[in-house]
Amino acid sequence: MIELIVVVVISGILAVTVSQLIQRPVEMYQAQSSRARLVDKADTALVKISRELRDALPNSIRIACSGRCLEFLRTTTGGRYRAAPVSDSLRLSFNPADADTRFEVLGLLADSGSIQTAAGVNACRNTTASCLVIYNTGLLGSNAYNMDNAATITGVNTSGPITIDFNNAGFSSTYTVFPASSPDQRFYVVDTPVTYLCDLTAGTIRRYQGYNIRTNHFSVDSHAELISQSNPAEDALLIDQVTACDFSYNPGTPTRNGLVSVTVSVNEQTESITLMQQAHLSNMP
After folding, report:
1. What is the pLDDT of residue 275?
2. Does 143 have pLDDT greater than 90?
3. Are residues 120 and 202 in the same domain?
4. Which value, to the nearest 10 degrees, does the dihedral of the CA atoms of residues 60, 254, 257, 210 take?
5. N or C: lower Cβ tally within 10 Å for the chain?
6. How far is CA 22 from CA 15, 29, 116, in A?
7. Domain with 146 in it
């Protein structure tokens, strides 16, 4: 009996010692696994945002909602328009007296099948047709959000000379054609505005598209505005478990690209991580 008691006591001591030796590595493994999941979740979201920013129309980045809303106009394709010779009917003129509604594309037009066409001048603003944008500086008189330099694409011809037909009559009281030419004869095709909205109450970042192009930023209650307007936005959950986030934008200069910085913090039980991603944007209009 005494021997049995001694064996039980020794076995108990060994069990306690071994459990203490094993417990810490197990806890460390669980914590590391939790952090890895959080890092993967946050990194996937940030990579998604930074990759899509590559398709942003130059100078169309807007930050609102105290740094919790990021908006831009997404491009699907683009190219160079023909501006010479002056006597050619397929060149693009910036003289209001010419009232051009068609121009020839120099070279090929990539992804022409993604261009949506419609007859109405407001189809571009309502995202029921693609927008033709030329020389977007984001400044007054050359701001695509105001439709200063945007037009509804009414037709695309890819057989023979590649041409684009457009309608921008009535968008501006000053211009009946595009207000300014691009130094490099560039044009862009925009299909929709895109907004990433960080909702700290819900702990989410959601992505919105397909809503009307509007002049002003959204208010703090962006979700309600986006969903309640005449052309409701399509939304999708990008990431949850968000505890903090921030969008910031440093516009480019003639010698430096624009820079978008995105910071997000996510939490799972006792673990929390914060990641930041930066995207360089070419703002050559």
Report:
1. 94
2. yes
3. no
4. 10
5. N
6. 10, 11, 62
7. 73-191
* Collapsed DSSP state (helix, strand, coil) of residue 75: strand
Question: If DSSP codes are grouped into helix, strand and coil, which group holds residue 116?
Answer: coil
DSSP string, 184-210: T-EEEEEEEEEEEEEETTTTEEEEEES
Of residues 52 and 141, which shows the higher confidence score? Answer: 52
Q: How many residues does the chain have?
A: 285
- Quote the tokens at residue 16: 């306690």
Other Cβ atoms closer than 10 A to 218? 20
197 shares its domain with 132: no
- Domain's final residue, options 136, 169, 191: 191
> DSSP 3-state assignment of 214?
coil
In the numeric block, which tokens belong to residue 84?
């010479």
pLDDT confidence of residue 14: 64
pLDDT band per the 50, 70, 90 thresholds, residue 105: very high
CA distance between the termini of the chain: 92
Number of domains making up the chain = 2
Considering the domain architecture, whether residues 183 and 91 belong to the same structural domain is answered as: yes
Structure tokens at 211: 């809503």
Q: Hey, how many other C-beta atoms are within 10 angstroms of the C-beta on 235?
A: 17
83 lies in some domain: yes
Hey, which residues does 274 pair with through a beta bridge?
A: 265
Q: If you average pLDDT over residues 33-47, what whole number do you get?
A: 86
Q: pTM of the entire structure? A: 0.85
Residue 209: partners with Cβ closer than 8 Å, 6 or more residues away: 74, 192, 193, 194, 195, 233, 234
